[in-house]
Structure formats: structure tokens, C-alpha cells
Write a structure and sequence with these properties.
- The chain is of the alpha+beta class and about 625 residues long.
- The chain contains 17 helices and 21 strands.
- The protein has a domain of about 240 residues: Beta-galactosidase, Chain A, domain 5 (Distorted Sandwich), CATH 2.70.98.
- The strands form five sheets. It has an eight-stranded antiparallel β-sheet with strand order 11-12-13-14-21-18-17-16, with no helix packed on it. It has a five-stranded antiparallel β-sheet with strand order 3-4-5-7-8, with no helix packed on it. Strands 9-15-20-19 form a four-stranded antiparallel β-sheet, with no helix packed on it.
- A hairpin with a 3-residue loop joins strand 11 and strand 12.
- About 45% of the residues are buried.
- The model has no long low-confidence stretch (mean pLDDT about 95).
Length: about 625
Amino acid sequence: MKLTDFITNSDVRTYILGKSMAGRIFPARDDREAWAGVPIDLQQAWVTQAESYLDYEWPSLRATAFMAYFEEGSRKPYDSVETERRNALCTLLIAECIEAKGRFLREIMNVVWLLCEQTTWCAPAHHYLSLKPEEFLSNVEEPLFDLSAGETAALLAWTFHLLKSPLDEISPLIRARIRVELERRIIAPYMARNDFWWMGFGEREVNNWNPWCNANMLTVLLLLDMEPERKAALYDKVLRSLDRYVEVQFDDGGCDEGSTYWARAAGMLLVNLELLYRASDGALSVYDQPLIKKLGQFVYNMNIDGHYYVNFADGSAIASQDYGMIHLYGSRIQDDQLRALGQIGFRTYRVPDRRGKGISFFQEMISLHSFANIQQEAALAPPLKQDVWLPNLQVMAARELEGSSQGLFAAIKGGHNDESHNHNDIGHFVIYVNGKPFLIDIGVEMYTQKTFSPQRYEIWTMQSGYHSVPVINGFEQKEGRTFRAEDVTYENSVDTVRFGVELASAYPAEAGVQSWHRSLTLRRGLNPIIELQESCLFTEPTDQLLLHMMSSQPPQHLKQGQIRLQDQANNQLILFYEHEQWEAVIEHITVTDESLTRVWGDSLYRIQFQLRHAVQQGNWVFQMAEKLK
């Protein structure tokens, strides 16, 4: 699929070019009826947050903070201040639109001034986009368009658009300065350069950066006036760039960046599609296309229960989804299961303290202006799918009962070890009981310089030794596209679902493995059970085999061949293994990283099954159930 097959440059000229955007995408500040429709408690929450920025001591952005990323590997010194500036402007802008009294204009002017004075809008971690990436500071003469620059640009464009009259009454130079900076930092480099990898015009495959950056570019285009032919050329480039993203999406809608990244992948594609839809009064739409529908459905296909999601790759088991956007996506593609997920998540929507967390004006506006209607909708059944099979992504998920989180849940993946945000995890699986995690995917620590460097796989959370896959003769899986799953199979019946995969090609030749076939089977019925079967063949006899399972609950040895995992709510999972073949060693892991403690607390556990006797050929079965046999 290509977007340009459905939305042409001629369509853009007909339905968007030259049209006023006043009130088309979101209500204008002076549309008091629309803003009065926002529930009072949400209005007050935004206003209260904005009041905390009145007479605010704005933090400075130091050169040494920018350099800290290169010298210490830390993103926090610079990124935290820049994020706080954007969050402040977003909060103040929304509060000013809610009140329309001018009370927040002076602080809006202050933060706009600060953003326009920044040497760069590009994050230090993305400075590699520069033509001289070896420099530890940014060159003011080379504006770089990354995720951070795009977010800043879009927010300034909304400020420019929504506060035209009140800002011009203070001084027309405020909006004039915004225009200068958007032209210099965003519009000109976007038009002039094709070598930003995320555009998709080079050899590197694009990821979520593409729709994310393009959504921000499209926002600027829609909200700023400029010469029509130049604007038409920019629209054309945005659509051609988005084509590069759409073209590499799996037909099954699977996102190899994981469910946590859905909001920044398919969710950002939705922002582009919705901007075009609203700007054209609904004339430009591809919401009926099968691929667009599949991309939206991925998020509920990976939902385990509540805020728990299957979290392969750099994802978190507890995903902070944007449920207003999920509901919007479901409404546009007429999918009640996606709408239902939006409803469920949106019931707990609040306006929390967003300091330290990035927020998006577009997403917040969707939530604010749809909240009341969503709350009044008839409740839809939860979209807890009994069986999910994504053949292109090579991911299976299965549960005991359709529409219920009760009982056993299993998910397993194939794929390759060069996926976006990759972990070396081919054949990795997770097990949940009654919607709660027991055998887990750890996730990823807070990002540092090392995370996206050649040393990525020195980080423990990326290594296959901390996933539920074997270590063979001391060798873990290797990174790279050639290290991949083979002979992936999926079988499904009313009572049984099975995933099979050949793992040998995920390991280097030195591992000496000719074949390692893994199958994971969920058997439903009166005595539901999950069965893991391992069948392998080696070039020489070996006893140097380890099987790992990561747990969020402390493992307890019962009698020989049995381990119990139990949470505080007395949910439990019993592991059955062949004690005469395997010795089970339990390792406690102290967790200190903030991203991990938020999900798991301060402890994780690694169950390490060590082979007792040398074999050249093996066939073993591990079983998992809620009850003792």
C-alpha cells in the first residue's frame, strides 16, 4: 500500500491548499462553546498545573549539559530541561485556551522566547544526524530535524495558530519570531535534505521516527501560511516519505518495535492521517484500507489485561498507552474492539503531574475534547482475544478464555535479531496467570548513550541470557538479521494452540548446535496446561546447556521437579521439569533502574536450568499450570 495511491498531490491542492485551518482541526481559543464542553474537573486540573508555571524560574540549558551525553552517556541533564520547557508550553497553551483570559500569556511568551533562543532543538542523542557528528556541541548553522526538534516545532506552530490575536496584541514580534525559527530549523532543512535517515529516501529501513517526524512537519505545514507552490511541494514530500513507512509495515499489522511503541508507530501514523482528514473536512481518508485497520488492531492483539501488554523488544510490560487516540483509531476504522480498549483505558484518564514526562498537544487535545462523549458511551466488551497469530511478525498470543483474563496466557515470538529496538530473543516467551505476570520479558532500562551504540548488547536486558531462551555451550544468540527463526509453525484448534520454531540459526556456528526445535503449546479444557518442548541435536556431546526463565515472583522449590511462583494475591504458577535431567538454580537480581522498578519493584529472579548429563541429542518437556498435579 502507498498513501499516494489514495491521497494525491492534486487532492491536497483541492481540499487543503489555500484553506483556512481556523477551527478545522481543534476548536479555536475563542470558541467558548467547544471549550465549555470539556468537563470542569479536567479544566481545573489543567489550569492548576498551568498556575504552577506563573512566575516560574525557567531552568537553563547549558552547553555542558549537551556535552554530558557524549562525556558521560547520560541523556538526562539536557533532555529533562528541554522536555520541561515543552511540557510547560503545552500546559500553559491548553490552560489559556480553557480560560481565554490572558492570564497565562506572559509565561507563554517567556517559554516561547526560551525555545526560540535555544542553539538547537535536536536532542544530544540524535546529534549523529549532523554532517559533523564528531562535534560535542551543536552547530547553529546546521539545524537538525529529529524527534525533539519536531515536537518543539509542532508545539510552537499550535501556539502561533491558536494565540494569533492575543499574542499580536502584546507584540507581533512574538509570532514573527516563531515563524523565523520554524522556517530556519524545520521547513528549510526538511525541503533541502534527503539524508535524514527517517525520511526513507536512503538505504536504511525506517521505523517510528518516520510518522512521528512527519506528523510534526505536517502540523507546521497546515498551520503556517506560505507560498502555495512551495507548500504543495512540501506536502508532496511528506506523503512520499510516509509511503516509505507504510511500505515496510507487515500485512498482519505487527509492530516489531513492540506494543509499548504502538503509540509512536501506528499511533503517529494516525496523527498524520487525522490531520489530513480534519484539514480536508473528511475528504482525504484511508481509514477503510485493510493495512491501516490491521496496524490499529495490533495494540489490542497484544493486550493481556488492563495495562499489561506483551512487551517484546524495548517495551515495558506496563504500557502507557494513549487511550483517547486508541478510541479515535477504533472509531475511524469502525472497530468496536479497538474502541472498547480505548473506553477501558480512558475510564482512568486524569490530568496527572506531567513534569519530567513528555506530553503531546495533539494527543491531549484529542483526550480533552472526546472525554465527555466517551464517558457517555455504552460499555463495550473487553477485547481480550483468545488466539492471536501474526505470521509476518511471527508472534503468537493465546489465553484460556475469549474475553477473559482468567486462567493461563502465553505469548511467544520468532523473528530475527535485527528488529527495531531488538533484543536477542528469538523463541522467547512470557506466561501470565489471571492477567498477572509470572514468567516475563524484563523490558529495558532507561535509555543512555550505550543503548543505541555498538555496545548495545553489553546491556544485560538485551542479552538472550536474560530471556527465556537457551544458552548453548556458553554461547548466547547473536545480533544481526542473519540470526533468525526458521521453520516457524502455528496450529490452532478449539482445545489446543501450538507455536513451533527452529532456533539453531539464532546462534553462532561455534555453539555447535545443528538443531534446536522449540514448541510452546497451550492446552485448554478441564486441566489447562502450557507445555514447552525442546528437541535438539549437537555436533558433539555436551552438558553445557542452560535454559533460563525470568520471573517477577520469588521461585520456591517444592518437591523434586517442581517450582512454585506465587504473587501477593495468591495467583500461582507451578513449573514442572525433569529433575533427573535438569538442576534448577535460582538467582535473585536486585533492580535499581527507574524504568524497571516502576514495573517490577526492586527484585527479579532468574531460574536457570542446568543440564546434568552430556547429550548429543535431547528431547525434554517443561510444563506450567496453576495447580499441582
